[in-house]
């Protein structure tokens, strides 16, 4: 059955009706980003574990040398961006599932955004600071 | 098996645990060497080691449990025995990987 068979009151196309809809007004974009960041972190997991292992037993000066090298800095920053994004989406799902008071829910989602972005920015700033040697 | 709640719980634990990651990186970037020693003193303590061990397990379990969800997203593994197998693989795999990581960490002299 094609769309033209059925008389409709609306002139909008099926795509037009679903666009920008859904409870979050963002459709499936969060679902998709959750999976992109998950794949990214799975790929980055081994390199990140190696980096952390390399810093074991070294003092601050040694850690600076390891974390300040270009490949390590890039690996860590990619991992941080993917983590922050992933955990922001994940926590929002948890909030939406359990917090039913509308105002409390909005405040919680806002705090979730603040926390995720703050952790990510602080970590990235630290890595850039180490890399630039200041 | 009701492991989806464990996936969620480990996710929340990892969320809070990023504070430790951020603390470690900020301390490494800090101008004072003592800031980094403080992190090492904490992660080297009994409580600190338990927390980092728990964090390692949460990370490994959440990753494997997430891969399990991927298999389902791709449309496989929906039969009862397959669901059970995937769940047990995530559960056992998470514990095995965690112990393996800690054996390697101790072996390369992470503990002084």
Low-confidence stretches of chain A: none
**β-strand amount of chain B:** under 5%
Q: Could you say which overall geometry of chain A the principal axes of the C-alpha atoms support?
A: elongated
Rg over C-alpha atoms of chain B, rounded to the nearest angstrom:
17 Å
Gap from first CA to last CA of chain A: 67 Å
Helix % of chain A is over 70%
Order of helices and strands of chain A: HHHHH
- Can you tell me the residue ranges of chain B where pLDDT is under 50 for at least 5 consecutive residues? none
* Mean pLDDT rating of chain B: 93
- Which structural class do the helices and strands of chain B define? mainly alpha
Give the biggest beta sheet of chain B: none
Distance between the termini of chain B: 41 Å
- DSSP E strands of chain B, number: 0
N to C succession of SSEs of chain B: HHHH
Structure annotation, total helices of chain B: 4
Decide which structural class fits the backbone of chain A: mainly alpha
Rounded mean pLDDT score of chain A: 90
**Biggest protein-protein interface?**
A-B, 33 and 33 residues
Total DSSP E strands of chain A? 0
Taken from the alpha-carbon principal axes, the silhouette of chain B is: elongated
* Share of residues in helices of chain B: over 70%
Label this structure with key terms:
heterodimer, A: 134 residues, B: mainly alpha, elongated
Please tell me about this protein's structure.
Chain A is mainly α and 134 residues long. Chain A has helices spanning 14-18, 29-55, 60-68, 70-98, 102-132. In chain A, helix 3 packs across helix 5 (102-132) and helix 4 packs antiparallel against helix 5 (102-132). Chain B is mainly alpha-helical. Chain B has helices at 4-29, 33-44, 46-73, 80-107. In chain B, helix 1 runs antiparallel to helix 2 and helix 2 crosses helix 3. Chain B is elongated and about 55 Å long. The chains are: A mainly alpha (134), B mainly alpha (112). The interface between A and B is medium-sized, with 33 and 33 residues.
């Amino acid at each position: 059955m094609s769309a033209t068979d059925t008389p409709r009151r609306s002139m909008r196309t099926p795509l037009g009706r679903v666009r920008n809809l859904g409870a979050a007004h963002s459709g499936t974009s969060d679902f998709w980003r959750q999976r992109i960041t998950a794949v990214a972190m799975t790929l980055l997991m081994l390199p990140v574990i190696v980096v952390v292992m390399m810093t074991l037993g070294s003092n601050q000066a040694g850690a600076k040398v390891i974390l300040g090298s270009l490949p390590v800095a890039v690996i860590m920053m990619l991992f941080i961006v993917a983590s922050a994004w992933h955990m922001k989406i994940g926590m929002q799902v948890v909030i939406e599932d359990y917090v039913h008071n509308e105002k409390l829910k909005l405040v919680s989602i806002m705090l979730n955004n603040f926390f995720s972005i703050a952790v990510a920015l602080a970590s990235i700033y630290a890595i850039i600071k180490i890399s630039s040697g200041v | 098996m009701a492991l989806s709640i464990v996936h969620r719980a480990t996710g929340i634990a990892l969320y809070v645990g990023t504070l430790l990651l951020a603390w470690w990186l900020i301390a490494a970037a800090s101008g004072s060497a003592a800031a980094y020693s403080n992190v090492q003193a904490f992660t080297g303590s009994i409580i600190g080691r338990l927390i980092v061990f728990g964090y390692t397990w949460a990370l490994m379990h959440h990753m494997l449990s997430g891969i399990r969800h991927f298999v389902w997203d791709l449309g496989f593994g929906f039969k009862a025995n397959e669901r059970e197998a995937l769940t047990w693989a995530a559960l056992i795999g998470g514990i095995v990987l965690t112990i393996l990581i800690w054996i390697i960490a101790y072996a390369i002299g992470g503990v002084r």
